[in-house]
Amino acid sequence: DGETARDFDDAVAISRLSGGCCRLWVSIADVSHYVKEGSSLDQEALQRGTSVYFPERALPMLPPRLSTGICSLNPQEDRLTMTVAMEFDRQGRMTGAEFFPSIIHSQARLTYTMVREMLLNGHREFISRYPSIFEDLRTMADLGRLIRAQRTDRGSLDFDLPEPQVVLDVQGQIEEIVRAERHIGHQIIEEFMIAANEAVAGFLTREKVPFVQRVHEPPDEKKIFEFKEFVSHLGYRFVYKKELHPQTFQRLLEKVRGKPEEKSVNYLLLRCMKQARYSEKGQGHFALASPHYLHFTSPIRRYPDLVAHRILKEAIQAGKMPEKRRQRWLKKLPHIAEHSSQRERLAMEAEREIVDRKKVQFMRDKVGQEFNGYISGVLPFGIFVELEDFFIEGLVHLTRLPKDRYQFLETRHTLLGEHSRKTFRLGDRMKVRVDAANLERRQVDFSLVP
């Protein structure tokens, strides 16, 4: 986990088998043992739906005595878990999976930074502290790369976009905004958690057991047509059929990798995508190119994961879920899925609003300063520019552009000056000056530097 994490949902272990195969254990905190279905605690968890994370604090879905106490997989302590044991061949293909309740004793609490230092930089102090774990980490890194390659081959989308990390001072104000790291440590856990989620979803599907699915539908045809128009003006041929497949987009992302237009193509494609949501109906996950998917690996902070644990337990303990329970779940799941989706969106909006306010506060003492940036949005009334240094977006209003009559070319994401023929297009780099930072509107205003 990250350095500041206090609730640990998951633990992983690995062993090499003959012929280059691997056995991977992903153990997830057994929250369902402590939060009983229909209890007051369960009703409150459902109402909250998710934990909410702000830069300076978190609003947990569960009480801290559970979330950071008995449910958290703290090191050197016995903990109840649900384990997914998966086997992979030498190409990284999953060849089998088992599911069972378990008790684990975590050997170490590692951070992403420690894993990076051991695997990429050979940090001697960390390696000597965890000699046997270091060997396991190397095996995990090898397996993670293989699983990732398999996922990419089937068309799973990987948007290579920098994520901002807000660093606060002791007063809770933004000290700086830096590019969040995403290295081998993150990739190992990401691949293992996706694999566990897919394994559980596949098992429940085969058993014809109802569950809350994580669905991501294909983008609308109108948005794809606009995307095709935009990339064609960049010189890329984008051919798609009526039946959209994520691999079509993945090939284009590979073509623009490392090119000046990479960021704008990634951003625009991401905007074409629909928002993932929870549903009781199986519609697959488009971005992951996965026919069946759910959330299982974070029951401390997400209610649908807790429900997945309850359903999986029933499916494996009874051998076959009784029809009475199956009908009960079929009746309950639509409300759980819809409510969880609403709570997730609300949490995301709240998190974004707080971060936006912090960003405006951060820019208040930078009025008059100049920064490099790139156009992150084009609208009829102006352009949005994101600063390269701080991941902060501001508006250059039409009145602050060089004097002209501008035509808004929507499909090209471009403003075109009718007299000067000057263009402002998504992804273009430019220099801007900070004119204002308005906290009430949560907006930063820029003007162009000639």
Give the topology, please:
Elements: E1 10-16, E2 22-29, H1 40-48, E3 52-53, E4 58-59, H2 64-70, E5 78-88, E6 94-105, H3 112-121, H4 124-129, H5 131-153, E7 164-168, E8 174-179, H6 184-206, E9 213-215, H7 221-233, H8 246-256, H9 262-272, E10 277-279, H10 303-317, H11 323-363, E11 370-379, E12 382-387, E13 393-397, E14 406-409, E15 414-417, E16 423-425, E17 429-438, E18 443-448
Antiparallel strand pairs: 1-2, 2-5, 3-4, 5-6, 7-8, 9-10, 11-12, 11-17, 12-13, 14-15, 15-16, 17-18
Helix pairs in contact: 5-6, 7-9
Summarize the entry for a quick read.
The chain has 450 residues and is an alpha+beta fold. It has helices at 40-48, 64-70, 112-121, 124-129, 131-153, 184-206, 221-233, 246-256, 262-272, 303-317, 323-363; strands at residues 10-16, 22-29, 52-53, 58-59, 78-88, 94-105, 164-168, 174-179, 213-215, 277-279, 370-379, 382-387, 393-397, 406-409, 414-417, 423-425, 429-438, 443-448.
Structural features:
five-stranded antiparallel β-sheet, alpha+beta, 18 strands, 11 helices, about 40% helix, about 450 residues, four-stranded antiparallel β-sheet
Radius of gyration: 24 Å
Mean pLDDT, all residues: 92
Beta content: 15-25%
Q: Tell me the structural class.
A: alpha+beta
* Tally of helical segments: 11
Order of helices and strands: EEHEEHEEHHHEEHEHHHEHHEEEEEEEE
Helical coverage, percent range: 25-40%
Give the overall shape, derived from the CA principal axes. Answer: globular
Major sheet size, sense and barrel closure: 5 strands, antiparallel
Could you tell me how far the N terminus lies from the C terminus, measured between alpha carbons in angstroms? 45 Å
Number of strands: 18
Q: Walk across the major sheet and give the strand order.
A: 13-12-11-17-18
* Poorly predicted segments: none
Assembly type of the shown chains? single chain
